[in-house]
Design brief:
Distance between the termini: 57 Å
Order of helices and strands: HEEHEEEHEEEE
Number of domains: 1
Structural class: alpha+beta
Radius of gyration: 24 Å
Helix content: 25-40%
Amino acid sequence: MRSILTRTVTAIAAIATLGFAAPVPAQAAARAYFEFTDFTQARFIVEITDPDKIQHARDLLSGATADRPHVIGRIVPRPAPYNPRWSYQLRSETIDFFDVAIEVCDATIPYVEENLDEAGGAFLPGYVWCPWSSRLVREIPTA
């Protein structure tokens, strides 16, 4: 009798623990780094976190697609650890790709750096940057 009672209490305790256990952390979000250039030959690294956009970038690099080859996103006027050469970065969640965009968001990589204090106003309104001559050149391997 005592054995049955002990097993019952243990089973109830195990079930209760499952119901109140801390949730298992979700799998880490996808994250990939890509380098692009423009006609100045300067290089800029972006972090992409959207799985579909990561796949699109990889398809561009492999030649599986030529659609929407240029990078667009919103600037954050501070450096990123993965892109230390520049005083700005693109917010990962805003990065996308395009074929054609309006002229007001076009600028070269070095021009953005030189005029970063003016970004967000008449220069790159809303901090949207769409370098027309941008093209991916490689994926940056992660450890």
